[in-house]
Amino acid sequence: MKASELFFPTLREVPSEAEVLSHQLLLRAGFIRKATAGVYSYLPLASRVLKKIMNIVREEMDRAGGQEVILPIVQPAELWKKSGRWEVYGDEMFRLKDRHNRDFALGPTHEEIITTLVDADVHSYRHLPLLLYQIQNKYRDEIRPRFGLMRGREFIMKDLYSFDIDEEGLDVSYHKMYEAYNRIFQRLKLQYRVVEADSGAIGGNESHEFMVLAENGEAEIVYCENCDYGANTEKAVCSLEEPKAAEEEQLEREKVHTPGQRTIQDLLDYMNIPKEKQIKTLIYYADEELVAALVRGDRELNEIKFKNVLGCNQLFMADEAAVKQLCGAGFGSLGPVGLPLKTYIDLEVSQMKNFACGANEDDYHFINVNLGRDFTPAGINDIRNAVTGDSCPVCSAPLYSMRGIEVGHIFKLGTKYSEVLEANYLDQKGREKPMVMGCYGIGISRTMAAAAEQGADENGIVWPLPIAPFEVIIVPVNSKNEEQMQAAWSLYEEFKQEGLETIIDDRDERAGVKFKDADLIGIPLRITIGPRSLQEKQVEIKKRTAKDVELVPLDAVSSRVKLMLKEMSK
Ligand code: 9G3
Q: Residue 380 gets which letter from DSSP?
């Protein structure tokens, strides 16, 4: 490909609307352009990267026994009403009507469609297991589309659905997908971790997320270096440690005047009470009822765990006015003593002695509060976020935390969809049974963004070789020098013969501009042809990730390049 003909409109400035590095770089390097909020056009370089990701995904899905289909994006409301999800997803669905005023949605996912499809045409155990997948656009009307391709309203997903006769069959399909996903992310040469997404393992449900590691990833994970345990922080189990100090004696509770002191930090500064000796009191609406959650002063409440404990449909923070009316004090002065609400405490709180908390009176706190003597909780549960240093729930070694981008998610569904959508089969004895399902997703466009995010350096994108838009870029230093250009063109022809994916930068630009662009778009190998190439019959080869160049005789370049690419793809 000639750079002079390639459509890659690069930008000098960092686009102001781009909050994350991958979004900035993909815009600047001319890979994507925004059409409207959360909707992007993929330009030729991006199209090449996406194709390579899709090909790897396809190969591994096929290897695992998947069969590719193409399901409709325009989906009738009836199916979603039947599964009960037409109401559940509300405004997150892109809805539309046809000329007959019938309701449709643009597919946010395809469980309903595929289950109905399989129901209509698969009736016997002899035709199971069945693994069907597609690679296609999905539509979700996010409230706040953000981070470029990371959270778009239109995005490309690979989704596979497995249909089995029973739980054992599902286990086999699930394991195949688990292995296939590992192969995919290894082949993509991304640093990733697999984490438990549902550690509770309730009702045989199992779920894993595949996280590409990135400092600015939106998800936090904890993992153990001693065993295989890893989990999304939202789901990580916090086990209770042995109390460190000997039983502390209960001291007499005291009320102290704390004018203007509202936060945990305030109380630390004002009275030198360590955060671990304080309690955070948070008030929520659990559906219609106000409830309180208590965590240690330096901890964060995990709303997902709390919601599971309560078993409510909706959980959201109470407004200060309602809290003040019921509890007698504003947010900064709340505590469990005399609180007229059901109070749920974190496991860790149950071990605390003589702690400080609000007195439910503005500008007053209690010190030396104790569980049992001073208040009685409605429940004692694991309701906080895990943090670095917590002990592993499997082997007790210390956990580490790290940020990541969720690029894959696999899930055992069981019979949830097959029952409501009536996807049954006849077993060997002629009995009718619901199919046992799993679903397995990979965000294709998000994987491209995650790769750009993970590899980037101060000069631009660094694509892993298997998904780089081109493998090699040839840069003649002076496009006005005919000899240089001739040497460059003949190398370009040679590379093409050898099947190398090559760009030649034939543009009439300064060498500095060409080098900057080659770095920005992230081509793994750069070949520079300058005056020395002609005088000494040598060219420079530079890896995108290396500081130094390598000098190679002109007639040995293509074999050297091929060897380097081979090594880089190992
Ligand atoms: C919706 C809307 C948003 C959604 C869903 C449905 C997320 C929805 C979960 C999944 C699960 C799996 C197939 C591939 C693997 C993951 N957001 N999910 O079901 F209607 Cl608006 O998509 N789907």
A: E
Please state, in angstroms and rounded to a whole number, the distance separating the CA atoms of residues 51 and 223. Answer: 32
Same domain? For 265 and 140 the reply is no
Q: Are residues 185 and 108 in the same domain?
A: yes
Long-range contacts of range 197-202, CB-CB < 8 Å, 24 or more positions apart? 197/231, 197/232, 197/235, 197/409, 197/411, 198/235, 199/231, 199/235, 199/236, 199/237, 199/393, 200/235, 200/308
Residue 13: inside a domain:
no
Nearest CA to ligand 1 atom 9: 109
Q: Where are the alpha helices (DSSP H) in 89-235?
A: 111-121, 167-187
Q: Percentage of the chain surpassing pLDDT 90?
A: 88
Name the residue range of residue 121's domain.
Answer: 46-237+401-453
Give the predicted TM-score (pTM) of the model.
0.88
Distance CA 525, CA 544 (A): 6
Query: What total number of domains does the chain contain?
Result: 3
Does the C-beta of 85 come closer than 6 Å to ligand 1? yes
Whether 279 and 330 map to the same domain: the answer is yes
pLDDT higher than 50, residue 555:
yes
Task: Specify the residue with its C-alpha closest to ligand 1, atom 3.
Answer: 108
Listed residue (313, 442, 413) closest to 83, CA to CA: 413
Residue-wise pLDDT tens digits, 29-56: 999 999 999 999 999 999 999 999 999 9
CB distance 109 to ligand 1 below 6 Å: yes
Ligand 1 centroid–CA 139 distance in Å is: 10
The HSE-up count of residue 71 (CA atoms within 13 Å, CB side) is 29
**Distance from C-alpha of 18 to C-alpha of 28, rounded to nearest angstrom:** 10
Ligand 1 centre and the CA of 109: distance in Å?
5
Tokens encoding 182: 């590992």
Q: Are residues 220 and 101 in the same domain?
A: yes
How many whole angstroms from 37 Cα to the centroid of ligand 1? 20
